[in-house]
Write a structure and sequence with these properties.
With 141 residues, the protein is of the alpha/beta class. It folds into two domains: 32 residues; 104 residues, 3-Layer(aba) Sandwich (Oxidized Rhodanese, domain 1), CATH 3.40.250.10. Helix content is 50%, strand content 15%. It contains seven helices and seven strands, in the order H-H-E-H-E-H-E-E-H-E-H-E-H-E. A five-stranded parallel sheet has the order 1-6-5-2-4. Helix 1 crosses helix 2. It starts with a helix and ends with a strand.
Length: 141
Amino acid sequence: MDQLITFAMSQPLLSGAWLVIVLLIIIMTIKIQMSPIKQLSTQEMTFLINRESGVVVDSRTEKDFKAGHIVDSLHLSNEKVSKNDFVSLEKHKDNPIIVVCSAGMSAGKVASELAKAGFSRVSILKGGMSAWISAGLPVTK
């Protein structure tokens, strides 16, 4: 413990940087845990689809969607999201909705817009289609 204190005193810039990084990790973890939008693994998503009639919403480009998508998923283009045009999803408003993108990075924006539009059970697939394909799960064209 004495060495840690000595190091922190002799390297204040480096110690400060480490402290900031640790605080950011803690804040992000708490933010993710408190968010109404949950991140699901491929297994959790499969259970949600099978047990609770979950609806998969694919937010990738039309070209990527046609190249291969999760069975029975619905395509939602970025244009519709930016215009808050969720008419195609209205009948699924009470069902769990799982938003899928290419790598799990852009699905958060779509999920947030869906939550703002009144969809109460919105989640995203952690890792996106890359995780789905890596898990060897079925894709249709």
